[in-house]
Amino acid sequence: MTKDPENIKAMLSTQFNDFILGRHEMVEPLLGDGIFSLDGEGWKHSRTILRPQFAREQVGHVEMLEPHFQMMKRHILKHSDGSPFDIQDLFFKFTIDSATEFLFGGTCGSLRDESIAESGGEQIVNGTDFAKCFNASQLYTNTRILMQWMCIFWNSKEYKRCNEVVHKFADHYVDKVLKMDPDELDKNSSSKYVFLYELAKQTRDPKMLRDQSINILLAGRDTTAGLLSFVFYELAKKPHIWSKLRKEIVDNFGCDTNDTSNVSALSFESLKKCEYLKAVINETLRLYPSVPKNFRVPIRDTTLPRGGGEDESSPIFLPKGSMVAYNVYSMHRNKDVYGENAEDFVPERWFDSNVKNIGWNYLPFNGGPRICLGQQFALTEASYVIARLFVKVA
Fold first, then answer.
1. CA–CA dist 388, 2 (Å, integer)
2. Helix (H, G, I), strand (E, B) or coil at 81
3. 3-state secondary structure at position 38
4. pLDDT digit string (tens) for 39-62?
5. How sure is the predictor about 263, in pLDDT bands with cuts at 50, 70 and 90?
6. What domains sit in the chain, N to C, each tagged with a CATH number?
7. How far apart are CA 245 and CA 386, in angstroms?
8. Residues with Cβ within 8 Å of residue 385, at least 6 apart in sequence
C-alpha cells in the first residue's frame, strides 16, 4: 500500500506499461469485456471507441437532466413539513435514471412510484427491481475484487439473477438500436444525443455494445451520486458555506421563492463560471474521492520510485504478479500539502495558488492514460443538481 504521489504517478502514468488492472476474472460476470475490465489491446480499443462519446458537446447537454430533477423534486417536496428523508437514496435513483437515458435513450424510471402518482415508463424490467439488482451486482462485484482469486467462491444464485436483470435491460436497447438502418440511426441521433446510438455507428457487435454501456453506467452513476451525497452532508454541517454557495447560485440563476429563477440560464458554460461551486465540489472530492483506494498488478519485475532503503526514499522492488494498492483517501488529507486543516472541509483553499498547482497530490478521477473519460460529465451533472436545488429551495 502506498500514498506517495510519486509512486502513484509511476503506476498510473510514467511506468503505465509495467502494470495492469488485473481484475477481469472478478468483474467479468457483470461488466463483461468493457473499458473497466480489460487490459492491453482490448482496453486500448475500448478507449479509442469511447473517447469521442465524452466530447464537450455531448456532456454539456444539461436539458435532459431537468425531467429527472423534477421527479426527484416531487419526492423532496413530500417532506416540506420538515420530516426527515434519505436524500442519498434519491441521488442514486436520480443518477441511474439520468444515466440510463444518456446511455440507452430510455430511463429505468426508478424515481417513478405511486407516492408521487407516477407509474413506471417502458417496462423492460421493473425500474425499482433494475436499480436494486444493479446495486446488488455492484456489491457482489466489489466483494469479488477484494477476494481476488477466491472470487470463484463468490458466485451465488442471487448474483447471477441480478446480473441477468441488468443485462436484460441493456440487451433490450442494444437489440433496438441494431434493428435501425443507418438512415434511421442518423435521424434518431439528430433529435437528441444517445450514447448507444453513437457507439452503434462504430461497432455492430451486440456484446461490445452491452458491455461498454454497462461499464459506463457503473462509473457514471456512482461517481455523481456519491459526490452529491457528500456535498450536502458537508453543507448541512456548515451553514456559512451553505450561505456563501447560495448567494453565488442565486446571484447567477435567481430562486423560485421570489419568482426570480432563470433555470434556462443553467448551462455547461454558466455552471463553469460559478467559482465557489467548483471549489465546493473540488473540496468534496478531496475529502471523499470516488475511488478512495485502488490497486494495480505489475506484469513484469519492476520498481517504484520510493519506499526502499532505511529512510524509504529509495526505489523499491516489485515482483511480477504482486498486488500494489494505492490510497487516494490518505493522500488527499496530507498535511504537508493541504496544511494543518487538511481534515477540514474548506472550499476556500482552492483559491490558493499553491493548492491549484498540486499535480498528483490531487487525484479525484484517476490519472495517466486511464484517467476517467466521464469526469466532465459527472462534474456537470453534479453542478446542475446542486444549482437546481438551491434555485428551488434557497
1. 39
2. coil
3. coil
4. 999 999 999 999 988 875 566 678
5. confident
6. 5-393 (1.10.630.10)
7. 10
8. 65, 69, 91, 94, 224, 228
